[in-house]
Amino acid sequence: MSDDKFDEFLQRAARSYHEPPATPREEMWTRIDRARRVRRLAAPTPRRRWWLTVSALAATLLLGIAIGTRMQRAAGTPDSLRPTLAAGPSAPAAPPGAARRPAGPASSAAAPVRASSPNVAGSATFDAAAADHLGRAEALLTTFNTESAHGAIDPQIGTWAGDLLTTTRLLLDSPRARDPRTRKLLSDLEVVLAQIAQLKSQPDSRSDEFDIIEQAVRSQNMMTRLRDATPSGSAALASGS
Amino acid sequence: MDETDLLTRARAGDPAAERALYDAHVDRVYRLAYRLAGSDDLAQDFTQETFIRAFARLGDFRGDSSFGTWLHTIALSVSMNGLRKVKRFRTREADLDEAREHGWTARRAEPDLKQRLAAAIDALAPGFRAVFVMHDVEGYTHEEIGSALGIQPGTSKAQLSRARARLREALSDFAGEWTA
To answer: From residue A179, how far is each of A120, A126, A229, A232 by CA, in Å?
Structure first.
């Protein structure tokens, strides 16, 4: 058998391999256009980047003050009123630093635990703040979904999203934001909030822009993730305040 | 308006120029993606991602090759990486897919030539399959294939030759079809 004959045969026969249909030009162009608009919205412009940086700095400062105040309050609580900080019979011995504290019935026992309490208090504060924030974000997205279904959204929603966007950035920048699941949720939320906040400068936003946002919320399973993240955190907030 | 003008306008963000570039190249990109993927959904995904990436990186295109060649480099990278992911997913998903991977070696009851050929092409290594599909099925030159895959035209020729040899071996039962 000749190689040339086989090659000719192969080329003839292979034309039917995965034979493509007509190119769905318009369908694909619509989706390309939409995807590019979503990506553009998600990418911060220089002006927005500046605004986000300033907001994040201001918010970080506020969070720092809030955490500091809360820790101070926790540290100032009488030992007898803090069962979690009181040491039981199996408590470790006081470190050398504790010996310098004024002598008292509870002071030597409470000191070692108090040494680690700022971390515990800080994490609890972050968890509470994150849960509270995610609860607000859920409320915003629910409102957005309801209003966008009617083809128009209240401009206040854009402002609301802008505020939440600042807090989202602040939480993401917090050194306490270590849980990868929470970080991912906050990152995804940031993109969606940026898109909604952008709508406030475009009062005549069209329904396809709403679709893009809704699609992003749906595809990332955002509502379920927010609901999952909210209940336990809310409890923490309630107990922490 | 020639392609250089279109590219200049597209870089400046002119949507009409982007659309004109898309119209000029989408058929070839989609056809190639379809031939490699064998599925409309995947071919559409790969084509869309190719154009999204191309428009996003238009500033990086220096014109060392033609825009079409550059676009095909992106299309092949997107398609082959995409297919790798799909294959991994399907392999995990069911043993049935694994059986299909090796379909042509596991003899089936009298499959016709078309089926055997398709299965044999599917079973080629990704690089060989890309060269074979581009040259023998879609009619690209070895120069075009070399540029798109980042290999020398001579390497493309060698890979095509090896791909054909494997196909010939896989289709030996049907020797009468081409010797007749």
So the answer is: 15, 11, 12, 15
* Domains recognised in chain B with CATH numbers: 1-93 (1.10.1740.10), 124-170 (1.10.10.10)
| Residue whose structure tokens are 């940086």 | A53
DSSP structure class, residue A92: P
Tokens 């607000």 correspond to what residue?
A136
Least confident span in A204-213, B8-17, B164-173: A204-213
0.90 exceeded by pTM: no
Residue carrying structure tokens 């809360």 = A70
CB B91 within 8 A of CB B138: no
For residue A166, give the nearest of A137, A144, A141, A139 by alpha carbon: A137
pLDDT value for B8: 93
Candidates B19, B30, B117; nearest CB to A20 = B30
- Nearest chain A CA: its distance from B22 CA (Å): 8
CA gap A116, A109 in Å, rounded: 13
Contact B117 A29 (CB under 8 A): no
